[in-house]
Design a protein that fits this description.
CATH topology: ABC transporter involved in vitamin B12 uptake, BtuC
Strand content: under 5%
CATH architecture: Orthogonal Bundle
Number of strands: 2
Distance between the termini: 53 Å
Length: 295
């Protein structure tokens, strides 16, 4: 049986590396919403993957019922899930903001189960797909899925937009001030309750964007959010909790790790390698590879 090295040509390695970067950019955007909520509110939002699932179904139904492009559906799924996030924050999450983190974990876990079961009741557990932009793009002898490339570009654009909002806008500065010290933010006249609503809404919106982009690449079903939730936690561990630029770099690292592990070992082993990397980082560098909170 030929060794693995026989098949590891520079072209194949380049293909895998670029594919890993394309996947990592999407992971990073999804994880950014989770990191934002935890960084500002200290809430562990286990329902993040479920919100992603709702974003995916929003895109699916808009495409199949009204012929709306999955990429244009972002203009609908993002604001709709922003409002859903605001509603969840107002009705449920606000009650556990100052409670121990285990309380928020249990609450959002319950919300996740309830929403996923409701989705399964309404839409059944059937696997669905959005067949759109199924062609490939060839460049320098490499072939890449057009849907993945467009999704990466949009994920990068949305991530940059979110970062610019946090960095340069008045509301973004209020969010960062609240994340650094809620008490000082209150003294400075910032409405912390309103900031929490906006923050949770932004996190839900980023999850929705991830769901819309994922829908053109993978099957959609009510439990699909679990995989991306776990990946988001891995990204946050790699990048450092509350470090938003670090979350993006963590996503790229995760994407590269998964794809290289699938190439060198197998697709079944790749997730285990990613989780092993997370455990290693937790043991050796608990604050993440990119330490410190974003300013």
């Amino acid at each position: 049986m030929p060794s693995v090295s026989v098949f590891l040509t520079p072209q194949i390695i380049a293909q895998v590396v670029v594919s890993g970067i394309l996947a990592g950019g999407l992971y990073a955007m999804i994880a950014l919403g989770l990191a934002l909520i935890f960084g500002v509110m200290r809430v562990i939002n286990v329902a993040h993957g479920t919100l992603l699932m709702l974003g995916a179904y929003t895109t699916f139904w808009l495409f199949h019922l009204y012929g709306v492009s999955p990429f244009l559906s972002l203009l609908i799924s993002i604001p709709v899930l922003f409002l859903v996030g605001v509603l969840l924050q107002r009705l449920f999450v606000d009650k556990v903001v100052d409670a121990p983190e285990l309380s928020s974990l249990l609450l959002t876990f319950g919300l996740s189960i309830a929403i996923a079961n409701l989705a399964q009741y309404v839409w059944t557990a059937d696997y669905r797909s959005v067949e759109y932009l199924t062609t490939s793009v060839r460049f320098a002898g490499l072939a890449f899925s057009a849907a993945r490339m467009v999704s990466f570009g949009l994920a990068l654009l949305i991530s940059l937009l979110a970062f610019c909002i946090l960095k340069y806008t008045k509301i973004g500065k209020a969010i960062r001030a609240t994340s650094q010290s809620r008490e000082v933010a209150l003294v400075c006249g910032i409405d912390v309750s309103r900031i929490h609503l906006i923050t949770f809404g932004m996190g839900a919106a980023l999850a929705a964007a991830g769901g819309s982009l994922v829908s053109v690449m993978f099957s959609i079903f009510p439990e699909m959010g679990d995989t991306y939730l776990v990946r988001s936690f891995v990204v946050i561990v790699l990048g450092g909790a509350g470090n938003y630029p670090g979350a993006f770099l963590g996503g790229i690292i995760l994407g590269l790790t998964e794809n290289l592990a699938a190439l060198l070992l197998s697709a079944q082993v790749a997730p285990a390698v990613s989780y092993a990397l997370m455990v290693l980082v937790l043991l050796l560098c608990p604050q993440g590879l990119f330490k410190g909170r974003a300013r």
